[in-house]
Write a structure and sequence with these properties.
The chain contains three helices and six strands; from the N terminus they run E-E-E-E-H-H-E-E-H. The protein is an alpha+beta fold. The strands form two sheets. The chain has a four-stranded antiparallel sheet with strand order 1-4-5-6. A two-stranded antiparallel sheet has the order 2-3.
Length: 154
């Protein structure tokens, strides 16, 4: 018999109006704008309910510092080239830590600066990712059992 596991996924889209320029082979291109789209997928284990607004406000609050900015003037993009890959990798690292603090596990971040191309960082197949989700689920079941036992003992 196969054990069924319930996971709830939240997918949020964020849009940033940001400018950047790229330096290739020592030659700096023109500063130009994009409306960057970032799609963040977050998972919560078991039957735990998290209101969309919780994750949405965390992500929007974090991203706000980039809105209407020239990326090349903001750390770490003052030192690394702000390509869609580098920006998405950086956001992935930052958002992963932020979301974990609030009960979410980052599944993936998809970034695009044009409607036709995306760059995706995914954690779905990482052994640590699966272990963290299973641990959260076990903790949640244990919490429910403790609550029921406590209620029975009253």
């Amino acid at each position: 018999m196969r054990e069924e596991k319930l996971y709830r996924e939240y997918r949020l889209k964020s849009y940033l109006n940001m400018n950047h320029y790229i330096t290739i082979n020592g030659k700096t291109g023109q500063t130009h704008p994009h409306t960057w789209e970032f799609i963040t997928t977050i998972i919560v284990s078991g039957t735990e309910f998290v209101e969309f607004g919780v994750f949405e406000s965390l992500i929007e609050g974090y991203l706000d510092k980039y809105q209407n900015q020239i990326l090349n003037t903001i750390e770490p993009f003052d030192l690394i080239v702000p390509t869609i890959e580098n920006v998405t990798d950086h956001l992935n690292d930052e958002l992963q830590a932020l979301l974990r603090e609030h009960g979410g596990e980052l599944v993936s971040v998809e970034g695009s600066e044009t409607p036709t191309r995306s760059y995706i960082v995914s954690h779905r197949n990482e052994p640590d990712f699966i272990e963290r989700i299973e641990k959260k689920q076990t903790e949640q079941v244990s919490s429910v059992v403790r609550y029921v036992v406590d209620q029975m003992m009253k």
